[in-house]
Protein: Thioredoxin-like fold domain-containing protein
Amino acid sequence: MKRKTAKSANMFRIALFVVFLGFCSGQMIIPPRPLGFVYGNGSNDAFIHLDAHFGPLCPDSKAALPNLKQVADYYGGMKLKLTLHMFPLPYHHQAYLAAVGGEVVSSLTDDNDTYMYIEEVYSNLEILSNDATSNMSSSDVMNTLGDLALACCGVDKARFLAATKIKAMETKARTAWKYSASRGIASTPTFLLNDVEVAADPTWTMAEWRQVIDPLVHGNFFKASFTSQNAGVAVWSGSCPAGTVKCEYLPEKVECCTKGEACIPNVGCRC
Ligand SMILES: *[C@@H]1O[C@H](CO)[C@@H](O)[C@H](O)[C@H]1NC(C)=O
Ligand SMILES: *[C@@H]1O[C@H](CO)[C@@H](O)[C@H](O)[C@H]1NC(C)=O
Ligand SMILES: *[C@@H]1O[C@H](CO)[C@@H](O)[C@H](O)[C@H]1NC(C)=O
Structure:
């Protein structure tokens, strides 16, 4: 009898586990619109889609943003569409709340203001750090984010705080996170050009981005490897052994291709 009870308790545990699994895995949420915050006038018809997965409290993402905006301004929204995706990292404890705040600002204003909100948060990384917020409740942190939303974008604080309690805002931030995770994003910033990951450095300047993007825009991407003339940057000054050809497949990333290998941008020497 006793044994039977133990057995049914186990069955119950297994059933619970299965139910739990059902809630936590299963299908992805299909977003009603493409995800991410589009910069400026970025057009869906642009040849180049530059997607950046950013940590809302990540200093490296902060460092990359001004250059990305410069790149987007340089090409213009008809040629290049820049989209930021928020991928809050769990070890930046308040990052998820900051991402929810971004969804709220986006809903109450537009993507332009959302960029200003993201920048305002980056300007205040200190007050949102793990240490500075260690004694704060979630409401305290939301309150701080509300101050930032008011400062950057004139969002009424009471409206901001009320909106953070709407389930849809949390669902949006959650959907965005799951999307990034499903694309294999594991660190920030991660950059994708037309959906393919680029081994770009967060510190890449406009000139370095141009080295990669210009050949795509001008349609000669597969004809030539990058040369230092592409964007007026002086790079690699070494030389390749006889019988091989220098292949600068990304700014300052060089391989020497043997005969039969092709120099493939973003990849290197491959057959
Ligand atoms: C957003 O920014 C772009 C580029 O600066 C501007 O042209 C557009 O009018 C802005 N949109 C709104 C709604 O302010
Ligand atoms: C964005 O579009 C608006 C309206 O079409 C236009 O007036 C403005 O110049 C554009 N801004 C940029 C930065 O392209
Ligand atoms: C958090 O509370 C503890 C205990 O009261 C205190 O020692 C610590 O300095 C507080 N930290 C911050 C960042 O306020």
